[in-house]
Amino acid sequence: MAGTVWKGYLAFGMISVPIRLHVAARDEKVSFNQIHRECNGRIKNQVYCPTCDRTVERSELVKGYEYAKDRYVLVEEPELDKIAPPSTQTMEILQFVKLEEVDPLFFDVSYYAVPEDPGRKPYQLLVDAMQQTGYCAIAKVAMSQREHTVIIRPRHHGLTLHTMYYPDEVRQLSEYGNREGIELKPQELKLAQQLIESLAGPFEPQQYRDEYQEKVKAMLEAKQQGQEITATPARRLAPVIDLMEALQKSLADVPKKPPQTEAEEALADKRAAQKASR
Fold this sequence. Notes:
Shape: extended
Number of helices: 6
Strand order of the largest sheet: 1-2-10-13-12-11-9
Largest sheet: 7 strands, mixed, barrel
């Protein structure tokens, strides 16, 4: 089981629930080390002090904030502990909001919130109440010397928490969303909608995988066995000149979906009902 990254209380009015946070998802990828080509030895990183002209131990290091060129304020861990906010130990719910009002652009890292045994009943009360009202909670929690705004939502009979970016951390791009000079014909929009519908289906995350990582693993296995590496053929794309023609060809290339059986229709209805109840 994933280790606990935060332990404290989730406060809801006068109710406090002891909980633990566990990371809900993480990257899975092939890791590489830095190797010296000449001797095939693994490189080790050392901490070097140019002023003392020597390698220093980790125990000799201290945090420093550069307030002017080459001038630092040194900060000790106990000093940071002194100014830690209450959210270091208590995650207080500040507001309830509808999930659809929150732009996913603000989401950062996901966590599972798990109750300690004494808090299981009030925890489940909060889960069911949020489930039935359709609300998610906004709270604050301090972890790793940073206070995060988080959104807490009911999911699969438990609470899932997402840390969020602050508005000043969300990048703005001037050309994003620029529609100036663009005119869409009704027929073009109709064909685009048909193409979307032809490719639509239920979200099944298990059908997606990282094919690039699979190819990296296959390449490593081939190299261990002294085999040649086969290059992946590149897909050649060009700017669309005739939008209508491109849409019509795209629709023609979409495989026809077989008609749903009664069992498949029932399963689709069940999934839709489950999605609506979340």
